[in-house]
Hints:
This protein has helices at residues 2-13, 24-27, 33-50, 68-84, 89-104, 106-122, 140-150, 183-192, 204-218, 232-238, 241-246, 264-274; strands at 56-60, 123-124, 127-128, 131-134, 155-160, 177-180, 194-199, 227-230, 258-261. By secondary structure, the protein is α/β, with parallel strands linked by helices. The chain starts with a helix and ends with a helix.
Amino acid sequence: MGIEKENLKKILGSPSYRVAYKDVDFLTSPPLRPTRMELELLKPELAFQEQNVRSTVVVFGGTRIPEPAVAEKKLQRARERLAETPDDVRRRRAAGKAERIAAKSRYYNLAREFAGLVSSASQEDGQRDYVVVTGGGPGIMEAANRGAYECGGKSIGLNIRLPREQQPNPYITPELCFQFHYFAMRKFHFILRAKALVVFPGGYGTLDELFDALTLRQTGRMQHIPIIMFGREYWQKVINFQHLADEGTIDDEDLDLFRFAETAEEAWQVIRRYHGE
């Protein structure tokens, strides 16, 4: 009987005996990738249905653009460090970058104002349209979630697991904050219910999300929505869209897939007119 007991102990402790949905090793194994992707599709979808989220307005923008007061403090510190060693090339460049970030910090307030305007105008009677959705991080994303939060509206945060630890900003509606592993599924949820895409100055991540939407619109693989870019001066320096058209690598009509805005009210009116409201 001793051998049988020992074998039974091995059976009960074997990974194969675990209930499949409780077997973390099994669920995180490479062959289960399709299942994990399906779960990342389904979990937010069910939550959006439960919260009556019928449509969204996506807000993208740089994580490094803080509110003006924070940007000003960082600029002051950079200038103080430069004053200690005026010939330090790195510190001089750091101070220059801090100056430009401080200049762009006005977009934090614009994103905050825009999200408040949209949320206060479109979340009534338990039905939620034009719900602001961001990547859930700091900077412009925080500003947009904050604007919705301050006017009593719900907003969504689609956070992503990154090598560097990233926490969701504190203004997201708790029951509408999600953490993703797969960028592809996160992008899918950004676009699925979108009635507009609003893009503030940002870096690689913002560019990736912008061009993903432009490509889908260009190829007719998503619903027709306005793509609005805040800050004509910034974007025309970063991307020479006209040059793409002049070179023939995009059609002239592709330049009509987006437009620029400088104020929150202007962007909101573009969205409303686009959808005939």
